[in-house]
Amino acid sequence: MVMVQSVAVIGLGAMGAPMARRLQDAGFDLTVCDAREAALLPFARSGARIVRTAAQCAAADMVIVMVATPAQARQVLLGDEGLRAGLQEYRAPLVALMGTMAPETVREFEVTLRLAGMRLVDAPVSGGAMGADQGTLTIMTGGAAEDIAVVEPVFACLATNRFHCGPVGAAQTVKILNNILGIVSSLMSAETYRLALEYGLELNQLARVFETGTGRNWISAGKDGPAAMYASMLSAQSFDAGLAIVRKDLKLAKELASQVKGNYPLVNGLSQLADALGEETLDTWQRLAQTVQPSQ
User: Fold this and answer.
1) Global pTM?
2) Is 15 found in the same domain as 118?
3) Which residues are catalytic, by number?
4) Fewer CB near the terminus (10 Å): N or C of the chain?
């Protein structure tokens, strides 16, 4: 089995940057690629190889692609300065596509890359920027078992939980389903805890009650309390950027539901609800974040 010694990370946003830092700290030969000079600067200082095009990442044993949209992924993989354009004779990296996108899009990329001699692992993540920083992500993988085995030492630096979900595309399906539940929990929990504040209740105590009852979810399970969870989410990226991701993820969920039998009024309704969210939701999140105690 081929051992991964060099890793390139394309996309140094709220998730990609902390993931890249962990890989460098773990001793992997790191290359980073991003269009923003400010994102590259910390890695230049730490001794990573800095490149500006995805094609320059093709010499790595493994390439992690952590970009926001399918269009960006297509450009990174297949564009004029993409990975495919940078392939060297007798050498092709294993590609881990770690953003969230439609399963059929990932399967399309896998076929195209395979024809060029590259292998692809479908590997979306859950756990947010905090999980990326702490190495406690959950990674869902789709692909051949032998390819999953190759990337396992890399993923072990990033995630405490790793699940092989099936062939390429299966992990994206699981991630979208996970996002449905996660988004519902985060949005409804915010309004629930805001109601609790207005009625004079203490949020951490309330979360402990929820943890022992049917209201349990990932917000109530946070060890630092619900207020700290919302403060962390607001600090990781702008509210508008986070809301854009929520809308994208719920659109993917709606598309997933439209392709199979069954009626899914709540999934469809969530997508419409997310389109209407704005200042009121931001105000609620900020109100919760303001209650964080200094020790938290």
Assistant:
1) 0.91
2) yes
3) 175
4) N
